[in-house]
């Protein structure tokens, strides 16, 4: 069973001007605390004070106060929030216990108007409420990042596999070069031996021989330089050819992209900004309506009919009908309206509150449509930005290639000039050698030329050997890295699996938690002929903005039995008020558990349980107390009597 980390310390609250509270100090020990009293005894106001201390803005300021305050002392830390009247609204300031109270407002602070608690009776989208705290867009972005990393690793591994197949051929080439080098060295050794023998047979002056040998050395060096230059020219030509091919490929890619991706979507930013403003306006309207609904419901519950604002006497004399009278008409049970001070029917005020709730639901649906359209526009804008970035990146690469081509063509021209100069030098040296030749030197000269050629060929082969060896070593290093890359890819795949299944797992866990605890609760409370209430996850095609998409929905099932034992499926509308209240509370508990609030939110609050009979309230509280360190419940005295005597009770606030 999941339980919160033990705080095991009494929480001390100081409250001024919250709801109907003037000033109070209340201690809440761990476990169950019951706020017991008749209506209009500030029980709900104190629950709001706890919510405010936790960081929630779902609290009201006392009608005749300009500023309110709540302070919480817990575990040696102090948390203080202030409420200040600002025109027609209330501004919150200070640091609460929670950095982000949104999830707690949904699933831990279960007052009468709590959205998760009321969702079953209102027929709300249960799946949307459970998933609301989940940043789905962040999960999608993380999946895209992980997939990109995985693709890069796959490309690198594929390249390594391709290069791996080159090793046998490269090793064969290396062996061949080594054999050729050894053969050339053997030939050179033989030539040098022949030169030594020929030198012994020649009778000539040492000076002539030295001059000839010097020319031969210079000729050999010049020929080596000429051959090296030719090789460089060949390398440059290959590089230029590769660059031209890359340029052609990039130009093809560029043609496939729009010329001005962002230019075609200049209207998007304005539309997105309009939708953001509309979303903000709708959020503000929904929040204002929720505060208005909550305030009126609390006044109805507490039977607080004290007039908060009275009309000016001159205004009353000018009009016989108040704004409320014009809206509602006449009724039997009349009360004093806390808005305008006129006498109206209580049930018609309740009808007005119901219409406000319906209006709020319409605004929520409109807000969802706006959010969906906003996401579509953002996706279009992201695609345009991506195309723009791709175009700019390709254009930068093309510019770099043009610079590289210009540089290599310049080097190529320089090498060609150098080749012409070396060719002329070789011809000149060969002519000089020819002048120094004589019949006596003809044979030794030929031997020297052959020896020079062999030395040049050996140098060239050794250069080739070095290149091949370096390439083999590079591939072997890549193969060594392949194992690390595979491990990294496996880790990425695990992360991808976690991210891809995160949403599905949360949905599945929520359904499992609800079904498990609903079964247990129904068995404990023993409602007549109510066998089971359970949620089924189903895939449906729904409309999101302008598109139809496949989406998971939570389908609520209710199963009853007739007097003769036959089972049949019922609807939410046929649930008793008590059954609906219990179902809503268990749904909120499922959200509390699936989002692990027991680890971060020490308080769970329950209010307005009067629709449930006393014995079942006691059983419900006993069930819920296992999941929160502090369970604070507002009850009427007659309902509180069913609880154990050792339960902490607060009778005066």
TrEMBL record:
SUPFAM superfamilies: P-loop containing nucleoside triphosphate hydrolases (SSF52540), Prefoldin (SSF46579). The keyword DNA repair does not apply. It comes from the Archaea. Residues 346-509 form a coiled coil. Keywords: Coiled coil. InterPro entries: P-loop_NTPase. Residues 203-233 have a biased composition (Basic and acidic residues). The keyword Coiled coil applies. Residues 182-267, 310-333 are annotated as: Disordered. Residues 189-200, 249-258 have a biased composition (Acidic residues). Residues 234-243 have a biased composition (Polar residues). This is Chromosome segregation protein SMC.
């Amino acid at each position: 069973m999941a339980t919160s980390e033990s705080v095991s310390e009494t929480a001390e609250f100081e409250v001024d001007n919250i709801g109907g509270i003037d000033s109070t100090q209340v201690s809440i020990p761990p476990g169950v605390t019951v706020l017991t009293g008749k209506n209009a005894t500030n029980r709900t106001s104190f629950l709001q004070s706890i919510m405010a201390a936790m960081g929630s803005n779902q609290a009201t300021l006392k009608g005749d106060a300009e500023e309110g305050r709540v302070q919480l002392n817990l575990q040696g830390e102090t948390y203080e929030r202030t409420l200040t009247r600002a025109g027609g609204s209330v501004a919150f300031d200070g640091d609460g216990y929670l950095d982000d109270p949104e999830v707690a407002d949904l699933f831990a602070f279960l007052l009468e108007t709590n959205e998760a608690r009321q969702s079953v009776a209102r027929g709300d989208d249960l799946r949307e409420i459970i998933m609301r705290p989940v940043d789905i867009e962040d999960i999608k972005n993380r999946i895209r990042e992980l997939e990109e990393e995985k693709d890069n690793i796959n490309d690198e591994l594929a390249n390594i596999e391709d290069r791996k197949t080159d090793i046998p051929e490269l090793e064969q080439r290396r062996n061949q070069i080594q054999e050729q080098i050894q053969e050339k060295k053997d030939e050179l050794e033989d030539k040098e031996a022949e030169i030594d023998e020929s030198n012994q047979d020649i009778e000539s002056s040492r000076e002539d021989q030295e001059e000839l040998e010097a020319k031969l050395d210079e000729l050999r060096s010049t020929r080596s330089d000429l051959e090296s230059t030719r090789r460089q020219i060949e390398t440059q030509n290959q590089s230029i050819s590769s660059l031209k091919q890359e340029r052609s490929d990039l130009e093809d890619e560029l043609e496939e992209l729009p010329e001005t991706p962002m230019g075609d979507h200049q209207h998007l930013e304005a539309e997105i900004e309009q939708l953001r403003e509309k979303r903000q306006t709708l959020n503000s309207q929904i929040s204002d309506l929720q505060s208005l609904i909550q305030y009126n419901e609390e006044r109805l519950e507490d039977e607080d009919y004290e007039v908060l604002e009275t009309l000016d006497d001159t205004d009353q004399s000018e009009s016989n009908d108040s704004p409320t009278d014009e809206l509602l008409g006449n009724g039997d049970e009349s009360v004093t309206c806390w808005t305008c001070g006129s006498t109206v029917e209580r049930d018609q005020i309740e009808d007005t509150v119901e219409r406000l709730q319906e209006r709020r639901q319409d605004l929520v649906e409109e807000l969802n449509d706006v959010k969906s359209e906003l996401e579509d526009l953002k996706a279009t804008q992201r695609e345009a930005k991506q195309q723009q970035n791709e175009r700019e990146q390709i254009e930068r690469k093309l510019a770099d290639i043009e610079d590289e081509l210009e540089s290599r063509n310049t080097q190529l021209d320089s090498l060609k000039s150098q080749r012409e100069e070396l060719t002329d030098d070789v011809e000149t040296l060969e002519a000089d050698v020819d002048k120094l030749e004589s019949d006596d030197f003809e044979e030794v000269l030929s031997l020297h030329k052959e020896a020079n050629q062999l030395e040049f060929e050996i140098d060239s082969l050794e250069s080739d050997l070095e290149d091949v060896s370096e390439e083999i070593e590079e591939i072997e290093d890549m193969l060594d890295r392949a194992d690390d890359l595979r491990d990294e890819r496996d880790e990425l795949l695990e992360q991808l699996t976690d991210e891809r299944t995160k949403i599905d797992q949360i949905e599945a866990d929520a359904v499992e938690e609800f079904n498990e605890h609903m079964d247990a609760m129904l068995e404990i409370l023993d409602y007549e002929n109510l066998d089971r209430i359970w949620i089924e996850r189903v895939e449906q095609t729904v409309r999101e903005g302008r598109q139809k998409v496949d989406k998971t929905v939570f389908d609520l099932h209710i199963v009853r039995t007739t007097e003769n034992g036959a089972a049949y499926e019922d609807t939410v509308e046929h649930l008793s008020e008590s059954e609906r209240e219990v179902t809503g509370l268990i749904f909120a508990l499922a959200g509390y558990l699936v989002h692990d609030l027991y680890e971060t939110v020490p308080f769970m609050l329950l209010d307005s349980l009067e629709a449930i009979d006393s014995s079942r309230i006691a059983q419900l509280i006993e069930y819920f107390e296992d999941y929160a360190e502090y369970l604070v419940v507002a009850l009427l005295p007659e309902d509180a009597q069913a609880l154990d005597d050792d339960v902490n009770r607060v009778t005066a606030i």
